[in-house]
Structure formats: structure tokens, C-alpha cells
Sequence to fold (114 residues):
Amino acid sequence: MKSFIKVMKALSDPGRVKIIKALEHRSLCVCELTEALGLAQSTVSKHLKILEEARLVDFQKDGLWVNFSLNGSPDNRYAKTMLKQLSGWLDTDTDIQEMLERLPHIDREFITRG
Fold:
């Protein structure tokens, strides 16, 4: 039951759900997610840690960057099921749509220069 509760708690926050929806489109670093969500970097980092602990997201280091993506093969069946379900949910939500419209215009190189 612990793994089920961990996944459900991870998905109980709108910011974390938005992160999942953004990562459905491409891998992103913390600075890109911060820009997309309009949240503080520390808040995004905390959200990512919770999602990682629930086995919903993975990360990969790429030089100075840490890229986050959806867990491609979660070993937690609850995480796997919820990721599959979420892929078809909330696509018409206004907040999700607005965030997804910003995503193509977010460039990590530009963000880190300023």
C-alpha cells in the first residue's frame, strides 16, 4: 500500500500534475520547468523530488544539465498506470493548455544567460 499512497500523494498537487503534463512533451531541466510553471526554482525542485520518489519521473545528467523525463519503465505498477492514464487526461484544462503553449518558446540557453 505504501507505493500506492506515494503515487497518489505525488499527484495530489496541481504543480506536480503540470510537471507530468509538460514532461509528456519533452525532457526538461529545472530552469525550463520553472519558466513554464511560473514557480520558484526551489518549489519545482521539491516537486521533482516527490515525483522521483514516487517513480513517476527520472533524470539524466548531461554535462551541467540535469534533464527530467517521465519514467519510461516504472517499476511501480501504480506509477505506470497513472502515467498511462494521465496521458489522456486534462488536455483541455486551461492552465495545462497555457503552460503547453509556452513550452516551445522556452530555451534553457536563453534562461541561463540572463
